[in-house]
Design a protein that fits this description.
- This protein is α/β, with parallel strands linked by helices.
- The chain contains seven helices and six strands; from the N terminus they run E-H-E-H-H-E-H-E-H-H-E-E-H.
- Strands 1, 2, 3, 4, 5 and 6 form a six-stranded parallel beta sheet that branches.
- Helix 1 packs across helix 7.
- The longest helix is centred in the last third of the chain and has 20 residues.
- Bound molecules: flavin mononucleotide.
- The site of flavin mononucleotide has 17 residues, from helix 1.
- The site of flavin mononucleotide (FMN) has 17 residues, from helix 1.
Length: 179
């Protein structure tokens, strides 16, 4: 079975303070056919190299948007990446079919516990509802939107649970390179 490429678009503005997302990223760094773009590291001035990113997408089977949830969405550089890289004529619109048939996966962590993401919880809506803009972006680009890989309670999570999540993330990404 031929290998499939996974492109991880990672964003964390304070990686040295990160417990969850850096652990997850470190768990997949050595995997074959996995390419990591660490956006805050690559583009500290938010000056994203659109053609470089688009070329990487063309050579990819699965796009992973990996970041902590910030204000029910992504850190701002991920939005900048979407706004600039997913151009009309490339990702959507006339001749914009570069991403058709590729997969999109969110790998995200939430400070809030799972029960907070419910009608009577602090965040009032289930996470899948709050993530609809990502799902719709995938749809508009003709991509297959996968069920997000979520780590809840990311502020209080203990080290053993982080390690377990990291192992599960590695397994999932590895599977995607073989799918
Ligand atoms: C600016 C900002 C906004 C945040 N917004 C949310 C949010 O909307 N929902 C949530 O559950 N957690 C929110 N958090 C908490 C982060 O998601 C949490 O700290 C992160 O997932 C922990 O991962 P890390 O150990 O990799 O930093 C926010 C944190 C910051 C700094």
């Amino acid at each position: 079975m031929p290998a499939r490429t996974v492109l991880i678009i990672f964003a964390h503005p304070r990686p040295r303070e990160s417990r969850v997302n850096t652990a997850l990223l470190n768990a997949v760094r050595d995997l074959e056919h996995v390419i990591i773009h660490d956006l805050y590291n690559m583009y500290p001035d938010f000056d994203i190299d659109v053609h470089y990113e688009q070329r990487a997408l063309l050579n990819t089977d699965t796009l992973v948007l990996h970041h902590p949830v910030y204000w029910y969405s992504a850190p701002s550089i991920t939005k900048e990446w979407e706004d600039t890289v997913l151009e009309r004529g490339f990702a959507y619109g006339e001749n914009g079919d570069a991403l058709v048939g590729k997969n999109m996966l969110l790998a995200i962590s939430c400070g809030g516990p799972e029960h907070a993401y419910a009608e009577h919880g602090r965040n009032r809506y289930p996470l899948d509802i709050l993530l609809k803009p990502f799902e719709q972006t995938a749809y508009l680009c003709g991509m297959n939107y996968h069920e997000p890989f979520v780590t809840y309670g990311a502020r209080e999570i203990n080290n053993a649970d982080i390690e377990q999540q990291a192992r599960a993330y590695r397994e999932l990404i590895q599977k995607l390179t073989k799918a």
